[in-house]
Write a structure and sequence with these properties.
Blueprint: E1 23-29, H1 35-50, E2 57-59, E3 67-75, H2 82-86, E4 90-98, E5 100-101, E6 113-114, H3 122-128, E7 134-139, E8 147-148, E9 151-152, H4 153-167, H5 175-178, E10 183-197, E11 228-235, H6 241-251, E12 256-266, E13 269-270, E14 275-276, H7 277-283
Parallel strand pairs: 1-14, 3-12
Antiparallel strand pairs: 1-3, 2-3, 4-11, 4-12, 5-6, 7-10, 8-9, 10-11, 12-13
Length: 292
Amino acid sequence: MPAYTPLPGTVLSREIADYPEGIVLPIDKPYRWTSADVIRKVKYAAIRHFGKKNLKVGHAGTLDPLATGILIVCIGPATRQAQTLQDHDKEYIAGISFGATTPSYDLEKEIDRTMPYDNVSEASIRAILPSFIGTQQQIAPLFSAKSVDGVRAYDMARRLFKEQQRTGSAANFDSAALDILNTSTITINELELLSFNPDGIPPRTTGPATVASSRIHVNDNSDLHLPHADIRISCSKGTYIRAFARDLGEALGTGAHLDALRRTLNGPFTISDALSLDQVLSMLSSERLPGA
């Protein structure tokens, strides 16, 4: 018997035993909330609702604070399925700005480099996307400011690693540099350019801050009018979309960073299945999402 996934407006029993396989909640994670913020909020409400202090609550794969979309939350026995749910393929809609980078490759950190973007166009993006499809080694983003002769150690190690991958030789590659890289094998199944705006996007409006979201800093780079693309990405687990944005920028001869990210599919759940955090808290003792 699969875990129970409630529909919006469902009234949950106050007996966790009524859900022998546990409960799975596909939640549309709020902007500027960490995945841990969501888990803490749901766990507190679930413990009160079911009257069970040692109730297990976990997630099946994190989302970055500046991402929204499907975060699968498991309650009770369903936590045993978390790894299986996490192993499914994912789909994202990524907003990418070209011509500048940040240390985090999204808007959490300020721009550290700007560069020409003359080669960025709708045609050039469409032409380069097929080269990213397939199984490949991806180097995860790393917030590192350590410098070696004026060059960030992480950037130097990443360039050397990519050269090693291209030539098949370890010549001139300091093995110690590999220790600071986090590489993984990923698969990108599909890429689709949804839109392109050469003049950038307007400032993002996110509504009033909550207690959780006020802790997450967001930079607004809209006044730079950097070229912007929305790209749909279907990929395997473990794929860093911030790293994809970085690599796409480099492939186009410039820099790039995420300005928006939304997970629209996680295994069996699509974004149309997702519940708002408000809806989930309403199921659990009718608690409402607070303001500031």
